Amino acid sequence: MTVRMSKGKFEGLNACANEDGCIAALAVDHRQNLLQAIATARGAEATAHDMQAFKGAVAKVLSPYASAILLDPEYSLMYDLQNKATMLAYEKSSYDNSTGDRLPDLLPEWSVRRLVEAGARAIKILLYYNPFDKELINVIKQAYVERIGAECIALDIPFFLEPLVYDNAIGDEKGLEFAKKKPLYVARAMEEFSQPRYGVDVLKVELPINPIFVAQTRAFAGGQAAYTHQEALMHLRKTADATKLPFIYLSAGINNEVFCEMLELAAEAGAKFAGVLCGRATWQQGIQVFAREGVKALEYWLAEHGAQNIQALNRVLTTYASAWWDTYGGKGNIEIA
To answer: What is the C-alpha to C-alpha distance for residues 126 and 201, in angstroms, rounded to an integer?
Structure first.
């Protein structure tokens, strides 16, 4: 069946992808967590100038290796990216956790229109979501996504949604107990936000498995496993089947070698992922260099080690990732409205 897509969304998705249709994007939209990481590494307060310098170095050195770059409008609008497609984050870095429900909010001085005027080719939203939370909380979050989706439709720009799952009743999202539940949570979130009412064009999703608990992998930390190799393949396959939208994986701070191994595992499972939006796996080790030695040292580190990381990731994507339009049966099966 032919799929109808607006001209702006089609062109925006193509702008964010490489010539093969793979979204091989670099994420540098980190804010509070990056500010804290720089301060911790330095042993002293980090400033807005530090953020701008760090992000600018990463964008300058690594963006040539990426199909697009994800930035934030708070620290990152001054960079010359030489016509590289820019995706912009629209949400506040933190969330309202006064009731324990991680309620989201938008940057109050921005709108999708203003982000487009600032040069965005796509809009990204991060949303903390527990599919099994109280109904009212999830209705609030769902309505929030609907409003952003409507803005993106009105401005004819792609909408990338990043649902991050959690459950306060279980606790630590990096622990064993949550690892056992995570595949179901990720699948339910992907299924929910694939509905047309939300206007989402691409899901930026977590791996449904925690790598350190996957038996028979290099990433396995030892001790008790949450999944056998075959169970991990099943979870990757089932979550991929939960959506009819193109989806890409995020690295969630795991190192580059582990992330590449997990992408290979996803391909073995038959998960037709359309690429990645990867940040910390590529550049996070440069934080220590920047904190100790400054921006020039960081640029040298990025030119050698950061470039090696992103090139290794690109090789995996060339081998295993699908084009975003393959979700719809091929580019020729998309009718531009």
So the answer is: 14
**Total number of domains constituting the chain:** 1
| Distance from C-alpha of 268 to C-alpha of 256, rounded to nearest angstrom | 18
Using CA atoms, how far apart are residues 28 and 7, in angstroms rounded to an integer? Answer: 27
pLDDT digits (tens, 9 = 90+) for 275-307: 999 999 999 999 999 999 999 999 999 999 999
Residues 181/167, Cβ–Cβ less than 8 Å? yes
- Cα 63 from Cα 310, distance rounded (Å): 10
What's the whole-number mean pLDDT along residues 298-324?
Answer: 98
Instruction: Name the token pair of 129.
Output: 């979501």
CB of 295 closer than 8 Å to CB of 57: yes
Q: How far is CA 240 from the centre of its chain?
A: 16
| Domain, as residue range, for 24 | 3-336
Residue 29 sits in a domain whose CATH number is: 3.20.20.70
- Long-range contacts (CB closer than 8 Å, 24 or more residues apart) made by 7-14: 7/156, 7/336, 7/337, 8/155, 8/156, 8/157, 9/156, 9/157, 9/158, 9/201, 10/334, 10/336, 12/121, 12/122, 12/157, 12/158, 13/122, 13/158, 13/201, 13/202, 13/246, 13/324
Q: Rounded distance, CA 44 to CA 109, Å?
A: 30
Residue 254 has pLDDT above 80, yes or no: yes
Closest CA to 284 of 260, 255, 263, 258: 255
How far is 8 from 282, CA to CA, in rounded Å?
30
In the chain, the DSSP E strands lie at 3-5, 23-27, 68-71, 85-89, 120-129, 159-165, 202-205, 247-249, 275-278, 334-336
175 contacts 210 by C-beta, under 8 angstroms: no
- Number of Cβ within 10 Å of residue 60's Cβ equals 17
Which structure tokens are listed for 228?
């056998």
DSSP state at residue 322: P
Q: How far apart are CA 324 and CA 330, in angstroms?
A: 9
- pLDDT tens-digit readout, 188-218: 999 999 999 999 999 999 999 999 999 999 9
66 pLDDT tier (thresholds 50, 70, 90): very high
